[in-house]
């Protein structure tokens, strides 16, 4: 039996949808938190029960140690999901969150759960060669420079020394997790996958996004949006519309 208190620790439900026919779980990027997906949850309310994962070490979990290993993070998420598999389940992860979502999907499939779809956003496929990024080994200024290059962080945060002091350890830990992750050779889901990327994303060139096709024995789709690594922030309605169409199809009569 799942523990509702542990479940609330890990998952944020910004808008209850008690009559929803399916469930969507969203996984944040490196340095991100559950609140990043609040606009998604509000726009999709009624279509699905939308939850966002809250990783340890940030916001209301700031006293907990960060997890700097993607597989360990996925294992801990999976461990507390017992009460969330009663509805058709879709996973969405952006950047590092896509890797975590993929590993959670593997664990769920090992339990006998086939997912409605996994959306892997802004992240190269696990089978693509590691590019040798070592952002987590840079000094603080180097990490801030990376965030500025990706244009996904509020400039006011980057200019505030007190806020940076709190978030830099989280960022370093998450970058370590993302940059040391290596996909298991031959790992393939039986659940369908949609890969998303921006047409100007330096982190996920289109061929690296297309390679997610190697990781499913089911349907694969590729969606390319105008924008860089944080195209989801730049064009939220386009991504939300894609998710809405998917969720509506799940709720349609057979």
Describe this protein with a few key phrases.
hydrolase; 254 residues; 14% strand; 7 strands; Rossmann fold
Proportion of residues in helical segments: 25-40%
CATH superfamily grouping = Alpha/Beta hydrolase fold, catalytic domain
The fraction of residues assigned to DSSP E strands is 5-15%
Overall 3D geometry?
A: globular
- Separate helix tally: 10
Return the structural class: alpha/beta
What top-tier CATH class fits best?
A: Alpha Beta
The major beta sheet can be summarized as: 7 strands, mixed
User: In CATH terms, what is the architecture?
Assistant: 3-Layer(aba) Sandwich
Radius of gyration: 17 Å
Which topology does CATH recognise? Answer: Rossmann fold
| pLDDT < 50 runs, ≥5 residues | none
- SS elements, strand count: 7
- Order of secondary-structure elements: HEEHEHEHEHHHEHEHH
Read across the widest sheet, the strand sequence of neighbours is 1-3-2-4-5-6-7
Q: In angstroms, what separates the terminal alpha carbons?
A: 31 Å
| Mean pLDDT rating | 90
> Could you say how many structural domains there are in total?
1
Characterization of the model:
The protein is of the alpha/beta class. The chain has one domain (4-131, 184-251): Alpha/Beta hydrolase fold, catalytic domain (Rossmann fold), CATH 3.40.50. Helix content is 39%, strand content 14%. It is built from ten helices and seven strands. It has a seven-stranded mixed sheet. α4 (96-110) links the parallel β4 (89-94) and β5. The radius of gyration is 17 Å and the shape is globular. The protein starts with a helix and ends with a helix. The relative contact order is 0.16.
């Amino acid at each position: 039996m799942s523990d509702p208190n542990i479940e609330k620790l890990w998952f944020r439900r910004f808008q209850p949808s008690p009559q929803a026919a399916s469930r969507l779980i969203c996984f944040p990027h490196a340095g991100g938190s559950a609140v990043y997906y609040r606009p998604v949850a509000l726009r999709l309310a009624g279509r699905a029960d939308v939850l966002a994962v809250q990783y340890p070490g940030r916001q209301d979990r700031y006293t907990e140690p960060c997890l700097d290993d993607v597989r360990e993070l996925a294992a801990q998420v999976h461990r507390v999901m017992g009460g969330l598999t009663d509805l058709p389940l879709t996973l969405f992860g952006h950047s590092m969150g896509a890797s975590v979502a993929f590993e959670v999907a593997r664990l769920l499939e090992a339990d006998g759960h086939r997912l409605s779809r996994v959306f892997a956003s802004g992240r190269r496929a696990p089978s693509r060669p590691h590019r040798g990024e070592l952002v987590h080994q840079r000094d603080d200024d180097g990490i801030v420079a990376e965030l500025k290059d990706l244009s996904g962080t509020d400039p006011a945060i980057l200019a505030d020394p007190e806020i940076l002091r709190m978030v830099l350890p989280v960022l370093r830990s998450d970058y370590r997790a993302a940059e040391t992750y290596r996909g298991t050779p031959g790992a393939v889901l039986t659940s369908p996958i949609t890969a998303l990327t921006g047409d100007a994303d330096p982190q996920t060139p289109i061929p690296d996004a297309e390679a997610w096709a190697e990781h499913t024995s089911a349907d694969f789709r590729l969606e390319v949006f105008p924008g860089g690594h944080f195209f989801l922030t730049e064009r939220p309605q386009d991504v939300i519309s894609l998710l809405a169409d998917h969720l509506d199809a799940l709720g349609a009569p057979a």
